[in-house]
Known about the structure:
Blueprint: E1 3-8, H1 15-25, E2 30-36, H2 47-57, E3 64-69, H3 73-79, E4 84-89, H4 92-108, E5 113-118, H5 128-136, H6 147-156
Parallel strand pairs: 1-2, 1-4, 2-3, 4-5
Amino acid sequence: xxxxxxxxxxxPVTNGHIDIIxxxxxxxxxxxxxxxxxxxxxxMFSPDERLEMLREAVSxxxxxxxxxxxxxxxxxxxxxxxxxxxxxxRAISDFEFELQMASTNHKLDPGIETLFMxxxxxxxxxxxxxxxxxxxxxxxxxxxxPPHVERRLRERLGMN
Length: 160
Ligand code: PNS
């Protein structure tokens, strides 16, 4: 059984993430979507809130497990029998940092590959930060996130 791991902050999950999850799930037998509990990163949503939103967003996709992890990604991957880490690439601007992370992870554990999937064109502009910024100005983000995520954003931003 081939297991892949799609890690991220998912603060919050966007339609771009869901697109990658759907496509990766169709390639691997098992896909773990893992929320990083990254203490150095300021998040709008708690890890539990991010997990809840993710679980609802991928509930119709088969072969998915949603989890969270703390600490080194490659350690979590190794402990869970992961063959490949899947990352989405939106643009050349993503490449430099992603290459650095993939190379570091490969150095830490050469047994785990990083595979990049190009984000679908319609989501190439999309990021969680952009969604939070737009929602913060009171504009609709309905074409960028699922309805339950937009509801949570509006609640968090006191716009209900
Ligand atoms: O959605 P993001 O914020 O781009 O995801 C980044 C993430 C969570 C994949 C990255 O920060 C990560 O792997 N964190 C775990 C800690 C770790 O292993 N760091 C070394 C990676 S080079």
